[in-house]
Amino acid sequence: MQKENCIPADVDYLIGNHTDELTPWIPIIAARRKCNFFVLPCCPFNFHGKYVARRGDNGSQYDSFLRFVREVCVRLGFIVEEDRLSIPSTKRVRNCLNIPAETRLVLTKRFFDKILLNSDELKDGWRCGGAIELSELALMLTESEKQLMKQQCGGLQTFLRNQHQVFKTLKICQHSQQTNFRPSVHDAFLELTIL
Predict the structure, then answer these.
(1) Alpha-carbon gap, residue 149 to 158, rounded angstroms
(2) DSSP three-state, residue 39
(3) Which GO terms describe its biological process (predicted)?
(4) How far is the C-alpha of 63 from the C-alpha of 53, rounded, in Å?
(5) Are 35 and 57 in contact (CB under 8 A)?
């Protein structure tokens, strides 16, 4: 069986831009070709698949991944220079997605009931609900629930937007410098619950 080398012999520099699965392999290829390299990693992968942060690693999964890539490079004898670029695909997103499902359900039901009872308007015999100030819902949170949302890099507004099947969050500008947000029960969700 003949080995094929897809990298020409006269290559003296490898560039890995958004290489995903190839990121940890670029330093190995560069070491074998005795050339320098540059990697701009994005999605974290190790040699076997999706990279999972190691136990006891502090910081984000991406920080842990960068440490892993650096360790690979150093073991191969490279002097590592690092510059942290702001890459949109690695932007930290506020999401509240790691709140336990049971807690999400309890909070969603609590807010749903409050908004639904906020108006006496009926449509075909069904209560339509209304809109409510975000600050009113915030008063319904316990301290531990507030802390839980903060630990998830989000807040009440983020939580409600994640429950977009149930709630609509409306931006209402009263003054040029003040913006209020009013969550309401999503019409499509009301139609589903009525059927």
Answers:
(1) 9
(2) strand
(3) tRNA methylation
(4) 9
(5) no
Pairing of strands 36-40, 13-17: parallel
The per-residue pLDDT for range 145-163, each reduced to its tens digit, is: 988 888 776 788 888 888 8
More confident of the two residues 183 and 99: 99
Domains and CATH numbers, the chain: 13-90 (no CATH), 101-194 (1.10.10)
Give the separation between CA 191 and CA 128, rounded to whole angstroms.
Answer: 10
Tell me the per-residue pLDDT of 46-90, one tens digit each, with 9 for 90 and over. Answer: 998 888 887 877 778 888 899 999 999 999 999 999 887 665 555
Token pair, residue 39, equals: 């990697």
Using a 10 angstrom Cβ sphere, with 0-12 exposed, 13-18 middle and 19 or more buried, the burial of residue 55 is exposed
Give the chain's length: 195
pLDDT in tens, 125-137: 777 777 888 888 8
Q: Which two tokens stand for residue 28?
A: 């190995």
Give me the residues paired with residue 39 across strands.
16
Single-letter code of the amino acid located at 75: R
Residue 31 has pLDDT above 80, yes or no: yes
